[in-house]
From TrEMBL, chain A:
Transmembrane portions of the chain: none
Needed co-factor(s): FAD
Coiled-coil residue spans: none
Family: Belongs to the DAMOX/DASOX family.
Top-level taxon of the source organism: Eukaryota
Molecular function via GO: D-amino-acid oxidase activity; FAD binding
PANTHER family referenced in this protein's UniProt entry, alphabetically: D-AMINO ACID OXIDASE, D-AMINO ACID OXIDASE (AFU_ORTHOLOGUE AFUA_5G11290)
Protein name: D-amino-acid oxidase-like protein
Keyword Flavoprotein: yes
Pfam families recorded: DAO
Amino acids binding FAD: 50-51
From TrEMBL, chain B:
Name assigned to this protein: Peroxisomal targeting signal receptor
Origin species: Lentithecium fluviatile CBS 122367
GO cellular component term of the entry, any: peroxisomal membrane
Database matches in SUPFAM superfamilies: TPR-like (SSF48452)
InterPro entries for this protein: PEX5/PEX5L (IPR024111), TPR-like_helical_dom_sf (IPR011990), TPR_rpt (IPR019734)
Amino acid sequence: MASRTPPAFLILGAGVIGLTTALTIQRAYPTSTITIVAKHFPGDRSIDYTSPWAGANWCSMANDNGPLEHYDRVTFSRFAEMVEQGLGEEVGIGRMGMWGVFDAKIEETGILSRGTGRVWYEELVGGLRNLDEQELPKGAVFGLDFKSTFRINTQIYLEWLQAQVLKEGIKMVRRHYPSLTSLLSSFPNTALLVNCSALGSLTLSDVKDTNLYPTRGQTVLVAEPKTPIPRMYFRSPARIDPTTTYVFPRTNGGGVILGGSRQDNDWSAEIDMELSKDIIRRCCELCPELGEPKNLQVISHNVGLRPSRKGGPRIELEKWSNGVPVVHNYGHAGAGFQSSWGTAARTLELVQKVLEPSSKL
Amino acid sequence: MSFLGGAECSTAGNPLSQFTKHVQDDKSLQRDRLVGRGPGGMQESMRSQQMSGGSDGMMNEFMQQNAQLSQGPGPASPFAMEQMRRELERAQHSGSPAWAAEFDPGMEAPAAMGPGMQERPAGFNPAEFAKFQQMNPAARTASPTVNSPQPMMGGYQRPMYGMGMGMGMGMGGMGMMQQPYAPQNFQQPMQDSGKGKGRMVELDDQDWEKQFAELEQGDQDTLDAEANKRIEAELNEMDRSVDATDFGDFESIWEGIKAETEHARQLANEENFVDGMHMGDLDQWEGFDGLNTHSVRDPPMGDYLFEQNNAFQNITNPFEEGIKIMEEGGNLSLAALAFEAAVQKDPQHVAAWVKLGESQAQNEKETPAIRALEQALKLDPSNLEALMGLAVSYTNEGYESTAYRTLERWLATKYPTLIKEPLSSDAEMGFTDRHLLHEKVTNLFIEAAQLSPTGEQMDPDVQVGLGVLFYGVEEYDKAVDCFGAALASTESGVSNSSSQVHLLWNRLGATLANSGRSEEAIDAYSRALSFRPNFVRARYNLGVSCINIGCFTEAAQHLLGALAMHKVVEKEGKERAREVVGDGVSERDLDNMIHQNQSTNLYDTLRRVFGQMGRRDLADMVGPGIDVERFRGEFEF
C-alpha cells in the first residue's frame, strides 16, 4: 500500500526553483524517493533555461506586505545562514553592500511596502543610509546605501545545488514532456508532482497558464577589474523598470555582471549588440570603478527570459484528474534566486497539507 | 485546555503544537496574497482595509457584520460551553447512567436540548472551562469505563464518552420531539431540472475531454498508457477495497473497467469524426458541458459502486429506513446500505442519491459520497443540497476550482437574481485562474449575505458556502466567523436544520483545527458528536486533532472507534440491522456487508498514528481486512 512505503516525489524542472524545492522536500521527507525530470540541468546554457542567466543578487522587489516579502525574507535568512556557516565560497554566495540610485521620488519607485509605507527589508540588510548629494550620480533623485545584502555567483550556486541534490540521492532524468499528464504516465508511482517548469507552464498542454509571459533580460559579463569593486550598484526610475542599470561583482571568479533590460513578451534569444553597448555605457557611468567602456574585457553577452506571471508566482495545490496531487511552484519572474528558499518552503507546506492527515469539513 | 488532562498533552509544552503554530503564522501571510490577487491587484486585499482605508466597502461592511456577530452577547459564539456544561449537569442529575442510553434506544432522553439550545448567552472563558473540567469526574462516575487502567488518558477519553452518549440521547429525544423529517427539504429545487438534465446526462463519462486532449497531440501511446494507468489505479483501489478471495466481485468490476476503457476509446476515436467540426481550440471543449462542473482536471470519480450483499434490497421501503437511521443518529454504514438499496430500486430517486452521498460523507468515505452526489446532480442539476455537499467534498479532496464552480451553481440556483453574467466555465477563462474564480464566487456569496438586513437573519446556507470558500484559501478566521454565523442564524436553512446541524459543528471544528486551534476544534467536534455519536467523520477529525497535539493514543482510540462504526459489528448496529432486515442474516454476513466503499483515509491515518507511536506491529494490522476487536486490549474505543 502506498502509504507504507515512503512517498515518491516527482519534480519537473531543474532551475534554481526545481533544485531548491527538491532539497527542501528531501529534508522534510528524508526517506522519500525524489526524481527531478528536466530538459536542462545546471551546466546547460539555453534560452529555455533561465537560471544560469540570472544576475544575481538579493534586492527584494516585493512590496506586498505579505507572502512575497515573506518568501524573500526566508531566502535572505537561508543565505545568511550559509554564509555564517562559512559555506559562502563553496556555495557561491557572498555578502556585499549596494548603492541603489533612483530617478524618481521614493513614493513612485515601488520600494515602499503597501500599508506600511516603509522599505520592509531595512533591518534585514543592516540598515539603509541615504546617499549624500556628492555620492549621487548626476540627475538622480535619491539613493540608498544597502549596508549588507547578498550577491550570487549563479554558475557556482547552481552547480552547488545540483551537487547537494546528487548527494541526497535525488535522481535526475533528462527528458522533455508535452504535458503533466504524459509525465505522470511515465512515472506511475508518483505520490506527488511539483511543477517547477517556469515558462514551461505556458506550453504544457494541460497547464497552459496564460498569465505567464517572458520578460527578456540582457546582460554583459565582463572581467573583474584589478581593483575589486567595493559594492553592487543599481540605478532605475523604479525598482522594476525596463531601463534598470546594475553592476553585480560576483564572488569567486565570477566576473562582473552588467545589466540590464526588461522586455516583456519578447522571446528573442538573439543578442542585441546595440543594447549591450548601451548597458556597458550606463554601467560605466554608474560604477566609476569599472573604468572606461573601451577598457572592459567582455567575456560574454547573455540573454535570459524571466518567467513573469500576472498575479505573481503560482504556488498552489491542484489535484490532477488521475488523483495525483500537483503542487505548482512557478512564475517567479526576476526573483527566482532571491525567493527560492521561501517559495520552496511554501511548496513544502502544501505538500504536507496534502500528505499529512487533514481535517475534513 | 481542560479537555486534555495529561501534562504531555498540554499545548504549551508540546513542541509539535508550537510547530503547528509556527507554520500557521506563515500561512497567515498567504491569506493576503490569495485574496489580494486579481485585476485590481493587492490593494483589494481584505486585510488591506486597515491600511488602504477600505477600498472594498462591501467587504468591510460584511466583515464588520461578522465581527459584531461574534462579539455580541447573542448566540453567535460557536462555543457554548455553558450550554454544554448544563447539558452535562442534566445528564448527571437524571440519575440514569449515560451509557445505559446507548444500549436502550427506546429510553427517554434525559435532557431535552430542543429549542433552548440556541438562546444561550455565549460563554467561552477560562472559568467556563474550569467548571467544565470539574464536571468531568462526575461524568466519569456515570461511565462504565471508570476503572480504566490508563488514568492518563482517562481524563480526556471518559468524559467524551459520558458526554457523548448522554447528549447523544438528548439529541435522539430532540429528533423525536421535532417535526418529522420534511421531504420538501431535499426536493424543493426542481425548477430548472429539465434544462440542465439533458446536457448533463450525456456527460457521465469522466474524462473524455482529457482523451480529446491527448488525441489532439496525436499521442495515441499516451492514451493507451493513460488507459492502462487508470485501470491500474482502479485495480489498486480494488486491492484495497476487495477481499482477496472474493473473485466473483473482482471479475465483475474487471469487466466493468474493460467496458469503461473501451467506451473511452470509442469516444476518443470519435474525435476523427468530429475533426471536421473545427475543434481547433481545446479550451472551448472543456466548457462544453454547459454545466461547468466538469473540466480536464475534474475528479474522475466514475459511477457509484454498490455493495454486493445488501440485505436492505429485500425490504420494501429502504429509503424511509435510511432516513430513520440517519435521524436517529444510527450507524451510517447501515444508512448508506439502505440508500443504496433505494437507488437500486429506483435509480431516478434523487433524494435517495443525495442522502446516500451525505451518509457516505459523514461516514468519512469521500469518493463514494462524490459519486452519489454527482449522480443526484445528473438527475436534478439544481439540487441545492447535492450542490453544497459536493462543494464540501470537492474541497476536502483538493479539487478547489471544481468546488468553487459548484458553489457558484448553488448560488445561481438559490439566488438567480444575483447572477449578472454567465456562470464560469473553462471556456471563458481559458486557464483556470483559481484566484479570479474564487474572488468572483466569493463576491457573489457576499452579495447574497447582504440581502439579509441583519446578522441573525442571514441565510445560514449562504454563510456555510462562504465559510467553505474562505476555508479553500486558508482564510480560516473568516471561515470560523461564517460557520459561527450560520450556527447563530435564526433563519431556518438546510445547514442549521436538526438533521444537519452536526455537520456545521464539524465544519467549524475542521476549520479551527486547520488554523492550529486544536483544543477549540476538539470542543466543536464534541458538539457534533453530542448530536450524532455515530458521526464517523467527526470522530476521524477528533483523531486528527489528537495527532496534531501529539496525543497518539487518544488519536488511535478515535480512529479505531470510527473504524468500529464502519464494521457494523457493534451491538447496536447489528441488532438494528437484524431488526430491519430480519433474522435470516448471519453474523458473518453482517460483518461482510461493507466491502466496496472503504475509507482508505481512516486506514492511512491510523497506520500513521501507530507509526508515530513506534508500533509497526500494530501498523501492519491496519488495512481493509482489519479486525478492530483485536485492538481492544490496548485501546479503549
